[in-house]
Design brief:
- The protein has helices at 25-31, 34-37, 41-57, 63-81, 94-106, 119-155, 175-200, 219-225, 235-240, 243-269, 297-320, 335-358, 363-371, 377-388, 392-409, 418-424, 438-444, 453-467; strands at 160-165, 168-174, 202-203, 230-231, 277-278, 360-361.
- By secondary structure, it is mainly alpha-helical.
- The protein starts with 24 loop residues before the first helix and ends with a helix.
- Bound molecules: arginine.
- Arginine is lined by residues 33, 37, 93, 119-120, 123, 327, 329, 331-332.
Length: 468
């Protein structure tokens, strides 16, 4: 049941001049965004102060009004932070809640703040500032995680593990090399956030409702006041563009995809069947029923939370799809997915860094696993090509025979005798055994970007330079 508002003689205080009745309770409920956009309070006040300074500088409002407004806004900021300012649903959103409070503090001057501005450009600038702040934090978190990866990679530059394709042992690699693969992914992720930041760094404030304003404003002044590179160029675009939020979400989604892959590997690595790593007590949980268990919850949650970030991206893309210019109220739905994704991304980046920093590497198990599964079969074939000038396809075939023989004997290829090997290919010499151990295999892969410990250390050095 909704309350009958007829005949109250009251209407909304902020925009109800030509209304006789109060909005229906249901309308208030669907319309109000204060329950979530209260997160924008700092940016809203920052934007309003920049706008006020510009209005004073341009002689659009008096210095006295400007001071009253700025003073009031600073007190509101203080009040919000110490919890004395309470928001009300009847004032819909953060913008009108703050303006209403300002009325109580700055009297008539408060009413002049909204000159040459609309909530449309106001929310656009608030949200941009908020996303920009989150981008800066994300870049710092990514840098930290990259630093952790490099430190661990340096320690394990020569630690041998099986490299996989199809999750089947393929060729031995080093653990440092494996971790540096994630360093590369996260480096690209960081550059995506940096690119997005550059592109978004234009100030929409002053576009007013959609068409600009007849007041002699200086949009370059507000832009520089808020540390934007320039004002946006088109007022219609200014109030209807949410690309910056979409770019944030897509960069966040790609980052989460990378984190989910690492998380999945950690889950596999710390299983009893692999035992490549042991996670610390700080990042695992026990089971209430199975005493032997140490569950990688943090890694699983990073993997699971990836879905919510993708969901946020799809939500906002869908909200924005086919919206006519300029502002539409649909766009109020832009905030929650971005807030949620930002919070999720932040916790996941921090958890990953903590988990990796504490993780114990069981190098013996890795080595044992790398030595099984005929991981040096390619080295065997390569030796035949290099030393006996056998075409690779034939070498592949000969190697297959050696693998089969080793399998029937229950040994690795390196466990076959020279006689055994010469029965398969008479020209084989004892020299072949020098390439068969996993250490030799790994050391030999010194092509640029390869897994040889020396190569890994070169990449580590480069990465350290980048992180300076
Ligand atoms: N709360 C609104 C939002 O987040 C602010 C802009 C409202 N503009 C308007 N014309 N109703 O989108």
């Amino acid at each position: 049941m909704t309350k009958d508002n007829k005949g109250t003689g009251k209407s909304n205080q902020m925009w109800g001049g030509h209304f006789d009745e109060m909005p229906d309770e249901l309308l208030q409920k669907i319309n109000a965004s204060i329950s979530f956009d209260n997160k924008l309070y700092k940016e809203d006040i920052q934007g309003s102060i920049a706008h006020t300074k510009m209005l004073v500088k341009q002689g659009i409002i008096s210095t006295e009004d400007g001071n009253n407004i700025a003073d009031g806004l600073m007190r509101i900021l203080q009040g919000i932070e110490d919890g004395t300012v309470k928001f009300k649903t009847e004032f819909e959103d953060i913008h009108m809640n703050i303006e209403h409070k300002l009325k109580g503090l700055a009297g008539e001057s408060a009413g002049r703040l909204h000159t040459a501005r609309s909530r449309n450009d106001q929310v656009a600038v608030d949200f941009r500032l908020w996303v920009r702040n989150r981008i800066d934090e994300t870049i710092a978190d990514l840098k930290n995680l990259r630093r952790v990866l490099v430190t661990r990679a340096e320690n394990d530059a020569a630690t041998i593990m099986p490299g996989f394709t199809h999750l089947q042992s393929a060729q031995p690699v080093t653990f440092g090399h494996h971790l540096m693969a994630y360093y590369e992914m996260l480096t690209r992720d960081q550059s995506r956030f940096e690119d997005a930041r550059k592109r978004m760094n234009q100030c929409p404030l002053g576009a007013a409702a959609l068409a600009g304003t007849s007041f002699p404003t200086d949009r370059f002044k507000t832009a520089s006041e808020l540390e934007f590179d320039a004002p946006t160029n088109n007022s219609l675009d200014s109030v209807s563009d949410r690309d910056f939020a979409l770019e944030f979400l897509s960069a966040a989604s790609i980052t989460m995809m990378h984190l989910s892959r690492l998380a999945e590997e950690i889950v596999i690595w710390c299983s009893a069947q692999f035992k490549f790593v042991t996670l610390s007590d700080k990042f695992t949980t026990g089971s209430s029923i199975m005493p032997q268990k140490r569950n990688p919850d943090a890694a699983e949650l990073v993997r699971g939370k990836t879905g919510r970030v993708y969901g946020s991206l799809i939500t906002l893309l869908t909200v924005m799809k086919a919206l006519p210019l300029a502002y539409n109220k649909d766009m109020q739905e832009d905030k929650e997915p971005v807030f949620d994704a930002a919070e999720t991304l932040q916790i996941c980046l921090k958890v990953m860094a903590g988990m990796l920093l504490d993780m114990k590497v069981n190098s013996e198990n890795m080595l044992k696993s790398a030595s099984a599964g005929f991981a040096t079969a390619t080295d065997f074939a390569d030796w035949l090509v290099r030393e006996l000038n056998i075409p690779f396809r034939d070498a592949h075939h000969i190697t297959g025979k050696a693998v089969k023989l080793a399998e029937t004997k229950g040994v690795d290829i390196s466990g076959l005798s020279l006689e055994d090997l010469q029965k398969i290919e008479p020209k084989i010499t004892g020299n072949i055994f020098t390439v068969l151990g996993v250490e030799n295999s790994v050391k030999s892969r010194k092509s640029y970007g390869g897994t040889a410990p020396d190569e890994v250390l070169k990449q580590v050095k480069k990465a350290k330079e980048e992180l300076k």
